[in-house]
Amino acid sequence: GDPQRGVCSLPPRPLPCLHVRLLHRIGDGQSAIVWQGECDDGQRVAVKVWRETETMAGFAAPVLRELHFTAAHAHPSLTPALGYTRDPLGLVLPLGLPLPQLLSTLYQPTAAPPPLDVIVALCHHAATAVSHCHAAGLLHRDVKTDNFILVNGMLSLTDWGSARRQPVSLLSGTLAALEQPLSPNVGTYRFAAPEVLLSLPHSEAADVWSLGVTLAAICSGTALFAGVGAVAIFAEQLTVLGSPAASASRWPALLQLAPAVADLAMEGTTLNRLDERLAAMSRCLAREPRLRSLVHATLHWNPAVRCRAATLVAQSTLFSTCTPAPLVLERFGVR
């Protein structure tokens, strides 16, 4: 293919081509369908099969990008690629338990809340995954509960379809031709940072915001922001965090907004009600201020003020005494 057009005929070399029999659908996304499959040796796996429109010209740029990122960045907190399939075109991944399904198990209405060490372990692995992603020079750009799965007792981050190299990184070879300027319309609204919702420039700090919303869900089993659409979510952010008007000078991008959006951002109370909102979400958050502080560190209007994922992992007193996740989850009866 012509790399200048973002098309290549072959995936990255580290990934083997596998023969997998597709069994049944387990997920359905805009650009791909996830199947449970079975390899020739009987191993059950997940297969992310891209829709035909994504692959009409061979390995289209988004497909090749995900194949490359998944193969090139091995880490326990990042879901490893086992290989790829050619017909249909798909990425073979370990078969894991999606985080939303795990949370529904942990937060059953009639059950006692999960122990603190279980919650801390899950938060630790989510933060570690985002930290490693950034250390590798990548922006994931769609951090959310749906993109974490439990594999061998460990939470790992998956779905690299929206990922990009950080703008300061220099690339070489085929992948360099596939890199494009960061598009603002990425991610999932409920987890998206305000600068993403408002189509402003974004950086790794947008991933950190999404991590914070994910941590709130891990600590409560419910969504911090539950509106439908970008405008509704932004309005919820204003309700919870208060208007950024008083700190406009500390978030310069606010001054670049269209007048109508800027007026909305200037309205309402300046009172930050995040702590109150978190405490009302679950008994775990109400009783443990250190959990609330994890979320507080990530949710600031000004991206420059948000705590980096690596700093969150390194400095949290909760994480410094964290029990390894597999041991915690096995003791709690989740595998």
Automatic annotation (TrEMBL):
Entries under InterPro entries matching the protein: CDK (IPR050108), Kinase-like_dom_sf (IPR011009), Prot_kinase_dom (IPR000719), Protein_kinase_ATP_BS (IPR017441), Ser/Thr_kinase_AS (IPR008271)
Domain annotation Protein kinase: ranges: 20-318
SUPFAM superfamilies cross-referenced by the UniProt entry: Protein kinase-like (PK-like)
Pfam families on file: Pkinase
Nucleotide-binding is among the record's keywords: yes
Cellular compartments per GO CC: nucleus
Keywords: ATP-binding, Kinase, Nucleotide-binding, Serine/threonine-protein kinase, Transferase
Binding site for ATP: 48
Molecular function GO labels: ATP binding; protein serine/threonine kinase activity
Homology family: Belongs to the protein kinase superfamily. CMGC Ser/Thr protein kinase family. CDC2/CDKX subfamily.
Protein name (Swiss-Prot/TrEMBL): Protein kinase domain-containing protein
Organism from which the protein derives: Sexangularia sp. CB-2014
